[in-house]
């Protein structure tokens, strides 16, 4: 029986641009590891210094903390501002792009808390009910349910 030809694992021409990424792949390229997401979460309330971040994210080694902070800064998720010149010491704060991750992090945390995590889901302060996320179209002011695929379009 003849064998099927194998698909090439590398592009035919290495100078060809990579294929376009979907939204999730692009997001994961910027913040797609555990430590990066935990650092963004730690910076949501306010800017922090290196040692404060190390304390806020238990278990992160100093070399990993340095690496992830540099990556997040290159990705435009946070900005490092010197607060001491000698020795050089930095304070880290989220950019607008970084602050926009808050909603996604809350969704992930809520999902994890209902599937074996130790955290509590976000709750409405007045009545204590766990919050639910919903897609909303700001133009026609309609809620769109996840189970309505005909009403969701990716551009």
Structure described in brief:
The protein has 155 residues and is an alpha+beta fold.
Secondary structure blueprint with pairings:
Layout: H1 23-31, H2 34-43, E1 48-49, H3 50-56, H4 62-74, E2 78-85, E3 88-94, H5 96-113, E4 135-137, E5 142-144
Antiparallel strand pairs: 1-3, 2-3, 4-5
Strand arrangement, largest sheet? Answer: 1-3-2
The beta-strand count equals 5
> What's the helix-strand series?
HHEHHEEHEE
Give the integer mean of the pLDDT values.
83
Characterize the largest beta sheet: strand count, sense, and whether it forms a barrel: 3 strands, antiparallel
| Uncertain parts | 1-9
Strand content: 5-15%
- The CATH architecture of the domain at 27-115 can be given as Orthogonal Bundle
What is the C-level CATH assignment of the domain at 27-115?
Mainly Alpha
Instruction: Name the CATH superfamily classification of the domain at 27-115.
Output: Winged helix-like DNA-binding domain superfamily/Winged helix DNA-binding domain
* Backbone shape: globular
Report how far apart the termini are.
Answer: 44 Å
Structural class: alpha+beta
Q: Helicity range of the residues?
A: 25-40%
Cα Rg: 21 Å
Report on this structure:
With 155 residues, this protein is α+β, with helices and mostly antiparallel strands. The chain has a domain at 27-115: Arc Repressor Mutant, subunit A, CATH 1.10.10. It is built from five helices and five strands. The strands form two sheets. A three-stranded antiparallel β-sheet has the order 1-3-2. Residues 1-9 have low confidence and may be disordered.
Core attributes:
155 residues, alpha+beta, disordered N terminus, single chain, Arc Repressor Mutant, subunit A, three-stranded antiparallel beta sheet
């Amino acid at each position: 029986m003849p064998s099927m030809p194998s698909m090439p694992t590398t592009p035919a021409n290495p100078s060809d641009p990579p294929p376009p990424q979907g939204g999730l792949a692009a997001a994961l390229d910027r913040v797609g590891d555990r430590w990066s997401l935990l650092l963004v979460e730690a910076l949501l309330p306010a800017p922090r210094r290196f040692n404060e971040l190390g304390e806020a994210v238990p278990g992160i080694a100093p070399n990993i903390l340095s690496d992830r902070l540099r990556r997040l800064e290159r990705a435009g998720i946070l900005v490092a501002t010197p607060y001491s010149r000698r020795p050089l010491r930095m304070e880290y704060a989220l950019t607008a792009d970084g602050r926009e991750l808050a909603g996604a992090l809350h969704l992930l945390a809520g999902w994890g808390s209902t599937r074996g995590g130790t955290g509590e889901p976000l709750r409405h302060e007045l009545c204590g009910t766990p919050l639910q996320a919903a897609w909303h179209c700001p133009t026609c002011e309609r809620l769109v349910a996840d189970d309505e695929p005909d009403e969701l379009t990716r551009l």
